[in-house]
Amino acid sequence: MLAGFKKFVMQGNVMDLAVGVIVGAAFSAVVKSLTDHILMPLIAAIFGQPNFDGNFVWHLGGGEIQFGSFLTAVVNFFIVAFALYFFLVLPMNKLRERHAKPAAEAPEDPQLILLKEIRDELRAKRD
C-alpha cells in the first residue's frame, strides 16, 4: 500500500503540481508586496486613499453595496495577472521557443508525388 502511494507521489504530474503550488505561494507574497508597498501608495498619491474600500458605498434598505471594495479587488486582480504574465508566462514562452526543436519536414505523400509526375507528363505532351 505504501509502495503504491510512493509511486503515485513520485510521478511527474504530482511533483510538478507540488512545485507549482509552492512557487505560486512564494510568487503571491512577492506580488502582494509589490501591490501593498509600491502600487497602492501610487494610487494613494493619485486618489488620496490607498484603496477604494470606503468609497462608492450605497445604502440599500438594511444592507450596503460596497462597490469600492469590489473595485479594489478588481485592481488587485489585474495587478496579479499583469505580474504573472510579464514575470512568469512571457519568460517561460520565450525559453520554450528558444529550446524548441525545429519541426521535421513530413515526408511527401507518395500519392502526391505520383500526381505531380502525371501532371508534369501531361504538360509535356501538351506543349
Descriptive report:
A hairpin with a 2-residue loop joins β1 (57-60) and β2 (63-66). The protein is elongated and about 90 Å long. The chain folds into 2 domains: 1-49; 50-126, no CATH class. The chain has helices at 2-10, 12-47, 67-99, 110-126, and strands at residues 57-60, 63-66. The chain has 127 residues and is mainly α. The N and C termini lie far apart (78 Å). The chain is built from 4 helices and 2 strands. The protein has a two-stranded antiparallel sheet with strand order 1-2.
Q: How many domains comprise the coordinates?
A: 2
Shape: elongated
State the secondary-structure class. mainly alpha
Compute the number of strand runs: 2
Strand content: 5-15%
Query: Could you give a short account of the major beta sheet?
Result: 2 strands, antiparallel
Helix content: over 70%
Mean pLDDT: 83
Helix and strand sequence: HHEEHH
Main sheet: strand order: 1-2
Low-pLDDT residue intervals, each spanning 5 or more residues: none
Through-space gap between termini: 78 Å
Number of helix segments?
Answer: 4
What's the alpha carbon Rg, rounded to whole Å? 29 Å
GO molecular function: mechanosensitive monoatomic ion channel activity
InterPro entries: MS_channel, MSC/AndL, MscL_channel
Protein name: Large-conductance mechanosensitive channel
Subcellular location: Cell membrane; Membrane
